[in-house]
Design brief:
The protein is an alpha/beta fold. The protein has 13 helices and 10 strands. The structure holds nicotinamide-adenine-dinucleotide (NAD) and zinc ion.
Length: 361
């Protein structure tokens, strides 16, 4: 006997992304129209800086919500924190029609989204990103999850948000290091996919570094538009979406090898350079384009050289544990020009070794 499970067309999973100063007010307006119980998940920093304010804004609008928080930082992106949040949500009577709000950076989005994807087999969630990194990248696309001792982001799910509200106003309190952290993901998106965005970054890097509000909103819009188009065409990371892993194969291994002592975006910046150097060595990328990449990262205040304390053993263990490797061979996404990249390029280990040993110029 053959049966077929006819799943719903995916149209009902489409969602809107609001990007503007004042998107927070649009969020409150939207929430006023829902009758769901509301659970805001945030971290300890964002709770203090914005969480209580958002909670109060909702309350003033006649909406009750519960604010839950966990200690800030990548160190909280694990199953222990997920489990603690699940326990709190269950104790407070979460139901299938409740709504989870992820208020914070990429860590909060990934953790709260994963909690939302698993609790009671999945409840809806809304992304309210507060770091530049989460506003340009992680809040869109539905990749949620946590780290595992064997590697980053190894446990997770695809669970698209019901909506995303991106308000650059949140960035006013963001420390400069976190701000640059987000710019690294913008460079990644541009280097992988869009040479005109890359040229825009080159033209405006100086002003962007100084947090020019108008330029920043423009950069967020352009980055999110590109990411959304990629996710539409390849939601489950089969081909096109892999291009957004540019700089990440090397970068993730570096983060693990350094015990997360550098920020994700810093690791991505270094990873972009190291992988571009490999691409040059393989004859895929012109040295001229490599130089443009290094230059824009430098002007944006991002690191471009590998810290010398890297443990090679841990680095390679993390590299092979990364979910993008298969059959003992590490496959990279490599740039073939500014704004173009190739997926699934097999790289000999000796070329990776070379990057760890050689100081890049
Ligand atoms: N799911 C995805 O598609 C995706 C994409 C890229 C990155 N990520 C993940 O995102 C994470 C990195 O995100 P992140 O850099 O936003 O880290 P984060 O969430 O840890 O935020 C960085 C720091 O900034 C603080 N912070 C947040 N908003 C603030 C604000 N408005 N003002 C002041 N401080 C604020 C946080 O408390 C934290 O200390 C990594 O775990 C990475 O793997 C996920
Ligand atoms: Zn990233």
């Amino acid at each position: 006997m053959n049966l077929r499970v006819k799943l719903q067309p995916i149209a009902h999973r489409s969602y809107d992304i609001a990007i503007e100063r004042g998107a927070l007010a649009a969020f409150v307006k939207r929430i006023k129209t829902t009758s769901s119980d509301l659970f805001i998940i945030t971290d300890s920093n964002v709770e203090r800086l914005h969480g209580r304010r958002v909670h109060q804004l909702l309350f003033d609008a006649g909406v009750e919500s519960m604010l839950l928080s966990f200690p800030a930082g990548e160190g909280s992106k694990n199953m222990r924190v997920v489990n603690a949040l699940q326990t709190q949500l269950l104790r407070h009577g979460i139901r299938r029609d409740s709504l989870v709000i992820a208020l914070g950076g990429g860590v909060v989005g990934d953790v709260a989204g994963f909690v939302a994807s698993t609790i009671l087999r999945g409840v809806q969630f809304i992304q309210l990103p507060t770091t530049l990194l989460s506003q340009v990248d992680s809040s869109v696309g539905g990749k949620v999850g946590v780290d595992h001792p064997l590697g980053k982001n190894l446990i997770g799910a695809f669970h698209q948000p019901a909506a995303v509200f991106i308000d650059p106003g949140f960035l006013i309190t963001l420390p400069v290091r976190e701000f640059r952290n987000g710019l690294a993901e913008v460079v990644k998106i541009a280097a992988a996919l869009d040479r005109s965005l890359f040229a825009f970054l080159e033209r405006n890097a100086g002003s962007l570094r100084k947090n020019n509000a108008r330029l920043l909103t423009e950069v967020i819009k352009r980055s999110v538009r590109l990411k959304a188009r990629v996710v539409e065409r390849d939601e489950f990371d089969k081909d096109l979406r892999k291009t957004l892993n540019l700089g990440h194969t090397f970068g993730h291994a570096l983060e693990s090898a350094l015990n997360f002592r550098i920020r994700h975006g810093e690791a991505v910046a270094i990873g972009l350079v190291a992988e571009a150097a490999i691409a040059v060595r393989l004859g895929l990328l012109l040295k001229r384009d490599f130089d443009r990449l290094v230059n824009v990262l430098k002007v944006l205040g991002l690191p471009t050289t590998i810290p010398s304390l890297t443990s090679r053993k841990k680095f390679f263990a993390a590299l092979y544990a990364d979910k993008k490797s298969s059959g003992g061979m590490v496959r990279f996404v490599l740039m073939s020009a500014i704004g173009s990249s190739m997926i699934g390029v097999e790289v000999p280990e000796v070329l990776i070794e070379e990057q760890l040993g050689v100081r890049l110029r």
